[in-house]
Every structure is written in structure tokens, then in C-alpha cells.
Amino acid sequence: MVQKAKILLVDDRPENLLALEAILSALDQTLVRASSGEEALKALLTDDFAVILLDVQMPGMDGFETAAHIKRRERTRDIPIIFLTAINHGPHHTFRGYAAGAVDYISKPFDPWVLRAKVSVFVELYMKNCQLREQAALLRLQLEGGGRSVAGESKEPAGLLAELSARLAAVEEQAEALSKQLDDESADAAAVATAAHLERKLTGLRRALDALEPGTGSGTPPVPSQS
């Protein structure tokens, strides 16, 4: 069963959180509420999120300050942030949002379909990265265990390599389709860059698998990085 991605919704107004939940419920992911910047930072200490929807104007710690804290933490600095704001002070205000680390800056009222589409892209990228980490972990177990399967049962190396290759091929196919979708929709530069990073990691994992095939070399191939 595929684990659902978590999406963090940060807004001090309960009615805004309710509206966001209504818009994003069709994505069938786990929606987590936070009514303040402090509450959002607390949630980020324990859970992993695919994307953060962050209101700019909040009492106490505003969206810009919250984003700054998120980007300073190694655990959370790569999580995409979409700023939502009910005010528009011109290009300078928008620039401040991007300077704070946002991948997008959306003014209210916004088109629900557009917001849902943008969030879905980052959810897909997050899920592909999770799948890639699983494949890398399985490959690492193969290299360290000398052909032992994840469940601890004996399995021929050739059979396990074939299984790994098939799983990786499925992820590669999905990543390629997602990249084409981003190109067709002229997506945000941050989403395109994230997709390119995913493809590079997939290429590294494929090379490591190919190096394990009989007759391709005697050395132990490098294990792909999970970063």
C-alpha cells in the first residue's frame, strides 16, 4: 500500500484552512493544519512534508519569518513552500516572498484548480523521491548482504537484480512522464529543477545496477546517494 504524502497548511484563520482542505481533498493526501508559524515549525520537527502552503500575514511570526526558519533547518530546507497572501504590495512584496525561499507566490482570491494543480506536481515529485530512496536502500542491502533478500530469505543475485531492475524501470518511466508533463505545462522553475535532480539520481542508481550485472566488471559499484 502506497503511503500518502503529507501537505502542511499554515494559516491563522480557520475558515481559510477549511477552504484549503476542500480544494486539496481531491488529491487524496494527508492534510495537516497549523494555525501559526510556531505550530508549523513544531509539526516539521517530526513529520516529512511534500509541500507547505504558507499564509503571509499571521499574528506573531509571519509567513516570511516562518519560511526563514524552515530554510535554516537542514531537515526542512528543501521542502517546497507556496506563499498565499490576501494583499498585493507590488513586485517588491512578491520578490520578498521568493527571497524567503518560496517556489511560488499566489495572491488571494486564487483559482482553486490552479492551486490544486501546482500542489499535485510537488506531491508527485515527493512520491517519486520516496520510491527512489526505497530502491537505493534495497540495492544497498543487496551489496551488503551478498544476495540476501529484504525479508532475510535466500535469493539468487541474478534474480534479485532482475527484480530491482524492473522496479527501477517503473520509477524511471513515471519520472519521464512527469518531466514531459512539466515541459508541456511550462511549470515553475523549481518543479522542473526538482524533477531534473530526481532524474540524475535515477541515472546514478541505474548505473550502479548495471555495474552489478555479470561480466560488467569485478569491482563493487558505488552505492547511490540518498540525498
UniProtKB/TrEMBL annotation:
Protein name per the record: Response regulator
Membrane-spanning intervals of the chain: none
PANTHER family: RESPONSE REGULATORY DOMAIN-CONTAINING PROTEIN, STRESS RESPONSE REGULATOR PROTEIN 1
Coiled-coil regions listed: 161-188
UniProt KW keywords: Coiled coil, Phosphoprotein
Organism (species): Streptomyces gibsoniae
Ranges of residues in domain Response regulatory: 6-123
Record keyword Transcription present: no
Modified residues (4-aspartylphosphate): 55
